[in-house]
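Aim 2 progress. For Outer-membrane lipoprotein carrier protein, the working sequence is reproduced below.
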Amino acid sequence: MTRILLVAALLPALAHAGAEENLKQKLAKLKQFQAGFSQQVFDDQGNLIQEGRGRLAVSAPDRFRWQLTAPEESLVVADGNAVWVYDPLMEAVSIYRQDDAIAQTPLTILTRTDAEAWDQYRFSEQGQCFTAEPKSEDSHVRMMSVCFDGERIASLAMVDSQAVRSEFALSGFTSEGVAMSEFRFTAPEGTEIDDQRGQ
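Predicted structure tokens for this construct:
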């Protein structure tokens, strides 16, 4: 009886470990990729409040580009050391230490393979979809899911601390030909720069 109870107690932990390992194996085949995306944002009651589109590019480890082109333009670039958050309308860019910025989102796992990053999340798996939930209650994101179609990523979804859900359907997915210039940012002349990295 004790052995049965012990096995029952261990099953959830084993399931999380299996999901984490399976997701790692899938992402290991995607050292780099890029895709377009269409976005839908829902409030905590499930009402559609915004639609958008853009493109993303990833190169492991630590390089990431997220560009929203509609309804308004914005750009986030992680170059391996810093994260640049650019608002063309406001002609302003904020710069953060990459370790500080990526610790706040499960998107970290798309670009990093180190145990420190992955240990911050609990994982589950259902079919071709994987869910990552932060262990810390201080995270700005409650949950992220990534769903696959074969070896390509088909969709992403995130729920923030206000229960707002953002869903991203990917299109034109390719794991070839991502230029390193995608992960460099140079502020246009006249841009207001807010450097939060400290010295």
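The domain at 2-195 is CATH 2.50.20.10 (outer membrane lipoprotein receptor (LolB), chain A). This observation will guide construct design in the next reporting period.
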